[in-house]
Amino acid sequence: MTGAGSREPAAKNPERGAGSREPGAGSPERGAGSRQPGGDTHWRQSARKRAEVAAIANLGYPVLRALGATWTWKVTGADHLDAIAARGLQPIHSFWHGRILPATVYFQRRGIVVITSENYDGEWIARIIAKFGYGTARGSTSRGGPKALLRLVREVKSKGVAFTLDGPRGPREVAQPGAIWLAKATGNPLLPFHAEAASSWTLNSWDRTQIPKPYTTVAMAIAEPLYVPRDADDVALEHWRQRLQQSLAQCRERAVDALRG
Description:
CATH superfamily: Glycerol-3-phosphate (1)-acyltransferase
Number of strands: 9
Number of helices: 7
């Protein structure tokens, strides 16, 4: 994703956001491909798998770009991005894994950095989101996560980063602590948001991924930023995790209400 403090477009010409995470946090990794028991990069030894990754990325990007171009947006809370930028800070975009598609389209071309794994799924996801203008930090909760998180600490000084709070393995819509840790370590705020489509398909996946249908309206509700104190202890961090969870629930309610209106 691109630079974090950038302004958000109001209705059409959406932009995107994608998730990112740290050890125990959420990240936009889990896709439809296969997991490799022998290691995250084991798939690279297969010419067929390498060809599949390239095909998925080359076909997936134009399809998602064309689909997203048909959506109309109802956005609330976009001014919070301006408020963060006015303080010289960058947002830590925080959202649920099941809303990766509309988030990716809405927050695109801002240089936002996302953690993606080095496994089969993570590779084609990384290639697609790179075409949408996102940066990637490679790693996962189980392999390479700390290294990817250290890169996020560096990147958040000049760019936005993003976390799918419940990814890549769930449980669904339960916030993991990675984004809170990053907010404490850097002083940059969490920026919770939720997207809801008026008409969509829902995949039978662990995260119940929502795919907005062509020409539908997508409501994007962005919450007030959450500033985690640098001296927060474990008890305080759990408090902030719960606040983040509550903020996302409120964002969902606002998005649903916006569609009804």
